[in-house]
Write a structure and sequence with these properties.
Layout lengths: L8 H7 L2 H17 L4 H22 L10 H13 L4 H21 L25 H10 L15 H14 L3 H5 L6 E2 L4 E5 L5 E5 L2 H21 L20 H14 L8 H14 L4 H8 L4 H7 L4 H11 L6
Antiparallel strand pairs: 1-2, 2-3
Helix pairs in contact: 2-3, 3-5, 4-5, 7-9, 7-11, 12-13
């Protein structure tokens, strides 16, 4: 999928308006330091805003300031993105970055109001995530460690750790980045929960189920043995097989492990760590869990986000209606 990009780095500074360029850089600092945005978000916003800044310099001249930019100019910029064959989601991401930047400018007093609010977000197709069923997930979890030794290579050669990965992703519904960020001390055995650090450095406690707890208990002695043999400490719960770097497993490695295990046990090729997070929310909702409880566990700021992570079939909705509404049946 294509994304909006600025021109070649060597030409960017000459083509961008100095005031716009300065304010974009200031906003990048705010995103990183004050809002604790992820590296991925910062990179994406910077890319989109630099592209927009380059457009403004060409369209309005190098002396353009934020006060001069009105919503028709923003719409015109989005039109140039469509001309480059960018998809609607890519254009929507560009608009989100621009809208966020103008919102910050308004709060800081650089402009009177946010002109990007008057620009409608492209209508996106609603794609429900394909979520494996309970039986399918159990099939993968039960199959870990059943492969022949010669079939195991790299990260997949540590089945005890790999079981912990899947049990925590599916059993606790945590994000990939939250998973690899877990430290040994974050396991609250007495309270049967995990201390999870989510987006924006927000912390929350997530229940630790029996299956996940048992998987961790099996894995911990092997983890301790590996560190002892290497004569090095690590606070990370999940280690990479060769203790590269600081020993902590990376999100990319987790993605490879999940995909390998999914394919090895009959799941679709597009399964990734976030698929298990979707499955967590969907399966809990199917079993009657309260949506707000799921929201709390998943760490969503808005209930609408949780609703996108969880979906019910028409039959399930009808069944809930028949079971709960006093006027459903005569």
């Amino acid at each position: 999928m294509k994304t909006a990009r600025a021109d070649k780095p060597g030409n960017e500074i000459e083509m961008r308006a100095p005031e716009i360029d300065r304010l974009v850089k200031e906003y990048m600092v705010v995103l990183t330091a004050e809002r604790a945005a992820s590296e991925h978000t910062v990179r994406a916003y910077q890319r989109e805003l630099l592209s927009f800044a380059t457009f403004l310099a060409k369209r309005c001249g190098p002396g353009v300031s934020p006060m001069q930019i009105e919503h028709p100019v923003i719409r015109e910029y989005l039109g140039t993105l469509y001309e480059k064959d960018l998809s609607k989601p890519s254009v929507a991401r560009a608009l989100a970055a621009i809208r966020s930047w103008f919102g910050w400018l308004a709060r800081k007093g650089h402009i009177d109001q946010n002109p990007a609010k008057l620009v409608a977000t492209p209508k996106l197709p609603k794609h429900l995530p394909r979520v494996p069923g309970v039986e399918q997930v159990n099939q993968v979890l039960d199959g870990i460690g059943s492969s022949k030794p010669q079939e195991k290579t790299g990260e997949t050669a540590w089945p005890e750790r790999d079981r912990v990965i899947l049990e925590l992703l599916y059993g606790c519904g945590i994000r990939n980045a939250e998973l690899v960020g877990l430290n040994l001390e974050d396991i609250q055995w007495g309270n049967e929960c995990l201390l999870v650090r989510g987006k924006g450095r927000k912390e929350r406690y997530v229940p630790l189920g029996d299956a996940a707890a048992e998987a961790i208990r099996v894995y911990l002695p092997l983890r301790a043995k590996k560190l002892a043999e290497a004569k090095r400490p690590s606070e990370a719960l999940l280690l990479n097989a060769r203790l590269r770097g600081n020993g902590r497993l990376t999100t990319r490695s987790v993605g490879r492990i999940v995909k390998h295990l999914a394919l090895a046990h009959g799941l679709a090729a597009d399964v990734h760590p976030h698929t298990l997070r979707h499955a967590f929310g969907t399966h809990m909702l199917e079993e009657g869990a309260d949506l707000r409880a799921i929201q709390e566990i998943l760490g969503h700021a808005r209930l609408s986000t949780t609703q996108r992570y969880t979906h019910l079939t028409t039959g399930q909705v009808a069944a809930v209606y028949d079971r709960t509404h006093p006027r459903a049946k005569a």
